[in-house]
C-alpha cells in the first residue's frame, strides 16, 4: 500500500522544525501552505485536521484507511525519527536518553518559555514578557556546554536535539551574545549549512 505524507504549515519555527525532521529523515512529503495572515488555520478545512487551529499538522494517507493525523511539531519530529532509525535518535538506550534529555531541554526550557513570552507581546504584561524572553535567552546560552566538545547537541551525530535547538536559536539569532558563545556559533553554522535543513526552511516558501 502506498503511503503519502502532507505537512500543513507556514513559515514559523514549529513548522520549520517539523519540515526539517521529515527532510533529515529522508521522508518524502508534500508541503501544504496554510496562510495564517488570512486565517486559513481557522477555517473548516484546517479545523477538520486540527480543531485547535494550529500548525504544523502532519497527515499520513494510505489507500483504504482513515488518515493518520499528528498536530504537535515535537510528535512529528519523533514520528520522523521512528521512520528512519538511527537518523534522528541514537540506537543505544543511553545515547537515546541523553539525546531526549537535550531535546526536552530545548522544547520545555527554551521554546516553551519563549512562546510564553511571545504570547504576552500584545498584552499589558510587558514586564512579564521581558522576564520570560530573558530567561529563554539565558537558558539557550547555556547550551554552549553541549557543543563545547561535541559537534552536535547530543554527541557526534546529528539528532532531534539539533532540530529542537536550531529553529529557536535562529529566531533568537539577533539577541544571542555570539562572541561569548564560540562553540554554539560554530554549531549554528554547521546546522545551517546542512542541505536537509535548508530544504526544511524553504518548505513553506510560496512558489
Ligand atoms: N505546541 C504546538 C504549537 C503550535 C502553534 O502554536 N503553532 C502556531 C504557529 S508556530 C500557530 O498555529 N499559530 C496560529 C494561532 O495560534 O492562531 C506545536 O509545537 O506544534
Can you characterise this structure?
This protein is an alpha+beta fold. It has 2 domains: 90 residues, Glutaredoxin (3-Layer(aba) Sandwich); 102 residues, Glutathione S-transferase Yfyf (Class Pi), Chain A, domain 2. The protein has 8 helices and 4 strands; from the N terminus they run E-H-E-H-E-E-H-H-H-H-H-H. A 4-stranded mixed sheet has the order 2-1-3-4. Helix 1 packs parallel to helix 3 and helix 1 packs across helix 8. Bound molecules: glutathione (GSH). Glutathione (GSH) binds next to helix 1 and helix 3. Belongs to the GST superfamily. InterPro entries: Glutathione-S-Trfase_C-like, Glutathione-S-Trfase_C_sf, Glutathione_S-Trfase, Glutathione_S-Trfase_N, GST_C, Thioredoxin-like_sf.
List the helices and strands and how they pair.
Elements: E1 3-9, H1 13-24, E2 30-33, H2 44-49, E3 57-62, E4 68-70, H3 73-83, H4 93-119, H5 126-141, H6 160-171, H7 182-192, H8 195-202
Helix pairs in contact: 1-3, 1-6, 1-8, 4-5, 4-6
Bound molecules: glutathione (GSH).
Glutathione binds next to helix 1 and helix 3.
Protein name: Glutathione S-transferase family protein
Domain GST C-terminal: 93-207
Domain GST N-terminal: 2-88
Q: If you compute it from the alpha carbons, what radius of gyration comes out, rounded to the nearest whole angstrom?
A: 17 Å
Strand order of the largest sheet: 2-1-3-4
Output the CATH topology of the largest domain: Glutathione S-transferase Yfyf (Class Pi), Chain A, domain 2
Secondary-structure element sequence?
EHEHEEHHHHHH
For the residues shown, what is the average pLDDT?
97
The geometry reads as globular
Number of strands: 4
Associated small molecules: glutathione
What is the annotated CATH architecture of the largest domain? Up-down Bundle
| Tally of individual domains | 2
CATH class of the largest domain equals Mainly Alpha
Strand content: 5-15%
For the sheet with most strands, the description reads: 4 strands, mixed
Amino acid at each position: 500500500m502506498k503511503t503519502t505524507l502532507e505537512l500543513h504549515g507556514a513559515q514559523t519555527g514549529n513548522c520549520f522544525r517539523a519540515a526539517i525532521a521529515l527532510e533529515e529523515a529522508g521522508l518524502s512529503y508534500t508541503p501544504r501552505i496554510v496562510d495564517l495572515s488570512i486565517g486559513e488555520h481557522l477555517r473548516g478545512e484546517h479545523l477538520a485536521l486540527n480543531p485547535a487551529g494550529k500548525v504544523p499538522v502532519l497527515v499520513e494517507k494510505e489507500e483504504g484507511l482513515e488518515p493518520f493525523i499528528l498536530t504537535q511539531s515535537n510528535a512529528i519530529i519523533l514520528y520522523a525519527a521512528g521512520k528512519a532509525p538511527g537518523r534522528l535518535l541514537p540506537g543505544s538506550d543511553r545515547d537515546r536518553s541523553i539525546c531526549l534529555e537535550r531535546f526536552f531541554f530545548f522544547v520545555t526550557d527554551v521554546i516553551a518559555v519563549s512562546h510564553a513570552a511571545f504570547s504576552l507581546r500584545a498584552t499589558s504584561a510587558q514586564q512579564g514578557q521581558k522576564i520570560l524572553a530573558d530567561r529563554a535567552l539565558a537558558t539557550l546560552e547555556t547550551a554552549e556546554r553541549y557543543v563545547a566538545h561535541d559537534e552536535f547537541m547530543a554527541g557526534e551525530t546529528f539528532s532531534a536535539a539539533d532540530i529542537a535547538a536550531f529553529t529557536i536559536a535562529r529566531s533568537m539569532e539577533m539577541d544571542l551574545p555570539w562572541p561569548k558563545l564560540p562553540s554554539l556559533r560554530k554549531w549554528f553554522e554547521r546546522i545551517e549549512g546542512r542541505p536537509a535543513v535548508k530544504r526544511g526552511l524553504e518548505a513553506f516558501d510560496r512558489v
